[in-house]
């Protein structure tokens, strides 16, 4: 290093130096030698340079348009399930996931290509060699020379005078950021407390809509118009059936007949234990069963898969997703194996005067996986 580079600079001396001088001083202090420097566009404003600018701007514009399309699809596309019996509606519904994936992916890809293209076309090519040496803190000289180097790099890249690229990049990255925000916040927009004045997270289709209303246990025959209600004699000892809620007011309501069996918290496993089983009952739920018949939510308390298997020898319900096992006989459907940590909620049931199973009320605790107010 020369004496000039070694000297201590006062703030007044630094203030008098141009940015170019500070940049050169910074390189010298860091022992950096520029051995090659090539400006991609030594002659400014050529047609080729403008074409390259348009190319980069087009990628950022595409990123912005894709991000806006993603937001529009995410918010407005009809995402609710439509059965194959209505081919047009089913086709439109089935496009929801592919479309949000396509537009989000295209937006990310276009941002990436735009950045790479800009770097390749407009950042000057340079080769620098730096000698290794001990760092010497962050003095005022270091701070100012580093700022000068960064500002110089920004200017040499030409970003300040390439308005088309800065605007398109602002649009593309801004829309992309907006899309990421919508993606994160979208799920919180719906107010679960506003639905018909009731908290939809705290009740299920098993809750009577007015006092005295019967909610029957119905099996799924594959035809939503075929209402098949269950009686005790319909299930053999050691057997089980998946059941859904049904109320008479739905009998001629096509929409309810279909949607009542699609609700995520509706499926229940109605189990008939083998004679002689002596199940341990949960405190406060001693009268939730009807004889040997026990009804438990089918929704696994781990991640919400259907606990579709019942092993009659052991009296365990099995979840096929991650192998959680719930012991119906000895621990009122508490998990005894696997990742689930909470018992399956039990539905209180009885048999009405006509001999059909009915629910005595809704679940007394939330159904499904992790829930922020659940205590058990
Ligand atoms: S969802 Fe049932 S064990 Fe994971």
UniProtKB/TrEMBL annotation:
Q: Which GO terms describe its molecular function?
A: 2 iron, 2 sulfur cluster binding; metal ion binding; monooxygenase activity; oxidoreductase activity, acting on paired donors, with incorporation or reduction of molecular oxygen
The record, for SUPFAM superfamilies, names: ISP domain
What UniProt keywords apply to this chain's record, in alphabetical order? 2Fe-2S, Cell membrane, Disulfide bond, Electron transport, Iron, Iron-sulfur, Membrane, Metal-binding, Oxidoreductase, Respiratory chain, Transmembrane, Transmembrane helix, Transport
Q: Quick one: where is this thing mainly located? A: membrane
Instruction: Report the transmembrane regions from the record.
Output: 56-79, 91-116, 169-189
- Pull one GO CC term from this UniProt entry: plasma membrane
Q: Where is the Rieske domain?
A: 265-358
Q: Tell me the compartments it is located in.
A: Cell membrane
Matching Gene3D superfamilies:
Rieske [2Fe-2S] iron-sulphur domain
The record, for InterPro entries, names: QcrA_N (IPR045603), Rieske_2Fe-2S (IPR017941), Rieske_2Fe-2S_sf (IPR036922), Rieske_Fe-S_prot (IPR014349)
The way it spans or sits in the membrane comes to: Multi-pass membrane protein
> What family does the entry list?
Belongs to the Rieske iron-sulfur protein family.
Instruction: Relate the protein's function as given in its record.
Output: Iron-sulfur subunit of the cytochrome bc1 complex, an essential component of the respiratory electron transport chain required for ATP synthesis. The bc1 complex catalyzes the oxidation of menaquinol and the reduction of cytochrome c in the respiratory chain. The bc1 complex operates through a Q-cycle mechanism that couples electron transfer to generation of the proton gradient that drives ATP synthesis.
Protein name (database record)? Cytochrome bc1 complex Rieske iron-sulfur subunit
- Taxonomic source organism: Saccharopolyspora flava
């Amino acid at each position: 290093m020369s004496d000039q580079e070694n000297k201590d600079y006062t703030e007044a001396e630094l203030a008098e130096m141009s940015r170019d001088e500070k940049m050169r001083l910074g390189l010298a202090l860091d022992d950096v030698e520029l051995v090659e420097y090539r400006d991609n566009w030594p002659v400014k404003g050529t047609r080729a340079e403008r074409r390259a600018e348009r190319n980069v701007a087009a990628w950022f514009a595409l990123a912005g348009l894709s991000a806006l399309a993603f937001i529009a699809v995410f918010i407005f596309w009809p995402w609710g399930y439509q059965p194959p019996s209505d081919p047009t509606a089913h086709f439109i519904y089935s496009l929801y996931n592919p479309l949000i994936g396509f537009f989000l992916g295209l937006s990310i890809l276009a941002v990436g290509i735009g950045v790479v293209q800009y770097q390749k076309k407009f950042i000057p090519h340079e080769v620098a060699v730096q000698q290794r040496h001990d760092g010497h803190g962050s003095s005022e000289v270091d701070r100012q020379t580093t700022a000068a180097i960064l500002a110089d790099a920004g200017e040499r890249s030409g970003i300040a005078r390439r308005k088309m690229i800065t605007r398109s990049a602002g649009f593309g990255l801004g829309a992309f950021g907006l899309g990421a925000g919508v993606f994160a916040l979208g799920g919180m927009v719906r107010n679960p407390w506003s639905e018909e004045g009731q908290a939809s997270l705290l009740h299920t289709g098993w809750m009577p809509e007015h006092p005295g209303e019967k909610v029957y246990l119905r099996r799924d025959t594959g035809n939503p118009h075929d209402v098949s209600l269950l009686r005790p004699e319909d299930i053999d000892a050691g057997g089980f059936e998946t059941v859904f809620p049904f109320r008479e007011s739905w009998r001629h309501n096509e929409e309810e007949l279909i949607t009542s069996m699609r609700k995520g918290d509706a499926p229940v496993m109605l189990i008939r234990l083998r004679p002689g089983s002596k199940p341990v009952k949960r405190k406060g739920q001693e009268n939730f069963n009807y004889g040997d018949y026990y009804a438990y939510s089918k929704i696994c308390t781990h991640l919400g898969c259907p606990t579709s298997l019942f092993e009659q020898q052991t009296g365990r319900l099995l979840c096929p997703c991650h192998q959680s096992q719930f012991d119906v006989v000895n621990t009122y459907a508490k998990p005894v194996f696997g990742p689930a940590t909470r018992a399956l909620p039990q539905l209180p049931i009885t048999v009405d005067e006509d001999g059909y199973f009915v629910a005595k009320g809704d679940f007394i605790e939330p159904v499904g996986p992790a829930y922020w107010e659940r205590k058990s």
